[in-house]
Amino acid sequence: MIKVTLKGDVVKEFENGITPMEIAKGLGAGLYKACCAAHVDGVLTDLRTPLDHDCKLELLTFEDKDGAWTFRHTASHILAQAVKRLYPNAKLAIGPAIDNGFYYDFDVEKPFSQEDLTRIEGEMKKIVKEGLPLERFELSPEEAKKMMEEKNEPYKVELIEKHAASGEPISFFKQGDFVDLCAGPHLPDTSRVKAFKLTSSTGAYWHGDSNLPMLCRVYGTAFPKASQLEEYLTALEEAKKRDHNIIGRQLKYFTTSDIIGQGLPLLMPKGAKLFQILNRYVQDKEENEYGYIMTKTPYMAKSDLYKLSGHWGHYKESMFVLGDEEKDKEVFALRPMTCPFQYQIYLSEKHSYRDLPLRYGETSTLFRNEASGEMHGLIRVRQFTISEGHLIVRPDQLEEEFKNCLKLTKEIMTDLGLIDELTYRFSKWDPNDRDKYEGTPEMWEEAQSTMRTILDHLEVDYTEAEGEAAFYGPKLDIQTKNVHGKEDTLITIQIDLMLAHQFEMTYTDKDNTQKYPYIIHRTSLGCYERTIAMLLEKYAGALPLWLSPVQAKILPISEKQLDRCREIQKELRAAGLRVELDDRNEKIGYKIREAQLEKIPYMLIVGEKEAASGMVSVRSRKEGDMGSIPADIFIKIAQREVETKAK
Ligand SMILES: [Zn+2]
Ligand SMILES: [Zn+2]
């Protein structure tokens, strides 16, 4: 007999060799049906693995992370079996569960089309109906290799060869006519995967390596209940309607081009206009309200600069290096940050305590070599522009200046309507990974405790993350989530006690001695591309009037009103409004529908009556039909809406 500790620390005795599945059965039919896998002493285990010692047993359902993982991984086996039945020549790669679903990679001559996916789904349904048990068996590495060679599965052979070194037996799972190399665990049989859907297929390199074959990756998701699947798919559709990577292209904010390269989006006229609106707004605010001075520094520098700043040692992997370090006398690199450039401006003259704080601001274009698998629309890119700034401050000014950095960014995020979505993260160093960072433990202790004190004074509600600091100091990261729930840093404010020492940046204090200042690295709006992505997702493309690249469209009912429409356009432009005239020879209904699809805030329709009376018939995206009003009244309404930055 063995003693098994169950939920609530209940200890029960069982026959040696009993399986978690049999224990679940004894505990009730509901649990037995819902059960996906087990944790035995914390280790994820298949329900049919016999228990042979006293242990702690936790039965996992779909509600548990590992339970859902097992459920969806089983669905990936069903997918692979269906593909092999329909396309016997397809070669199998791997098929893990992922967040929200699963995928399987296949080597096929022709990538699967939507029709293929529908066909595969049909076959999967049959396999579910067949209720095939998934049975585990083991082979020696030699036998395993031989079997997969006979089945002509080169990717599986490669995986077996990798495992073979350990000499351990290789485990397989068999369901009906299908065998897959796998460690498990799985559901007991295929009938439990009731609700599933193949959501998309895409290309993916074997091992994520662009030198290796391109495979066809089929994504899917699976749930125990049809209603859960329905709910998930609806939410996915909703997310798609907001996904900036879809609507940003549809609404012509940006595009990409293979010949230019991955992670290098092109802002189209609308995107460039939005960029300019944001940029002017930020620069004016920083200069006029927060005392920033502007710099404009080079996009590249010699490696010497980055060696001094520490980027060469800590960040080179992410930089675009121009030249060959072994052969060339001088090697350059595109800048990943502006800090060392603005320091050179500081160093170009002497400073006294009276000059501080100095707040350098720059609309700065940066380059970072992100892995190609990481690219996503405007959110993860290789070239981007940020509202970057470095504040050179005396220790007695640090708290006040930090506070103002946070205040500035909060004002901007409030104006943009993004403030409610933000969360705050205090990113600290990892003392066990000293090589990643500059400075001494004492400096880190000081910088982090200073930052903590400031954050607590400001009553910032933050979480803490170890190992997320910059190499030169701790950060306050202001985080946001995209429509798919993926978290990214939008804004960061950092305290740096190290780099002033590295660069010999000093100021003459009251007592005539040379002192090192503190440096605050910060952004106010963040990276323009990412913030534009967040705006498009937040407003589903229907941006507030003050941010809309085209604020109004004038639609003449017939050619006869064209002259009057041109006059109105001139008046609106003179009043600072961004307005287009749709002078195409199309039906008015068609023009209205198009302007609606473009999410234009106001349509000004001009017919014979309006043209004669100086009126425009206004259709608002928000309010609907507003009737006919004099053109100059419309101008006042729109100007007011822009000034108040109404959402
Ligand atoms: Zn498996
Ligand atoms: Zn910096």
From TrEMBL:
Residues annotated as signal peptide: none
Cofactor note: Binds 1 zinc ion per subunit.
Highest taxon in the source lineage: Bacteria
EC code(s) of this entry: 6.1.1.3
Entry keyword annotation includes Ligase: yes
Gene Ontology biological-process annotations: threonyl-tRNA aminoacylation
UniProt-recorded Gene Ontology molecular function terms: ATP binding; catalytic activity, acting on a protein; metal ion binding; threonine-tRNA ligase activity; transferase activity; tRNA binding
Entry binding sites for Zn(2+): 339, 390, 521
RNA-binding as UniProt keyword: yes
Chain ranges of the Aminoacyl-transfer RNA synthetases class-II family profile domain: 273-544
Principal location class: cytoplasm
Cofactor: Zn(2+)
GO cellular component terms listed in the entry, alphabetical order: cytoplasm
Keywords for this protein: Aminoacyl-tRNA synthetase, ATP-binding, Cytoplasm, Ligase, Metal-binding, Nucleotide-binding, Protein biosynthesis, RNA-binding, tRNA-binding, Zinc
Reaction catalysed by this enzyme: tRNA(Thr) + L-threonine + ATP = L-threonyl-tRNA(Thr) + AMP + diphosphate + H(+)
UniProt-annotated location(s): Cytoplasm
PROSITE patterns: AA_TRNA_LIGASE_II, TGS
Enzyme class: ligase
Cited SUPFAM superfamilies: Class II aaRS ABD-related, Class II aaRS and biotin synthetases, TGS-like, ThrRS/AlaRS common domain
Residue ranges constituting the TGS domain according to the UniProt record: 1-61
Subunit structure: Homodimer.
Family: Belongs to the class-II aminoacyl-tRNA synthetase family.
Protein name per its UniProtKB record: Threonine--tRNA ligase
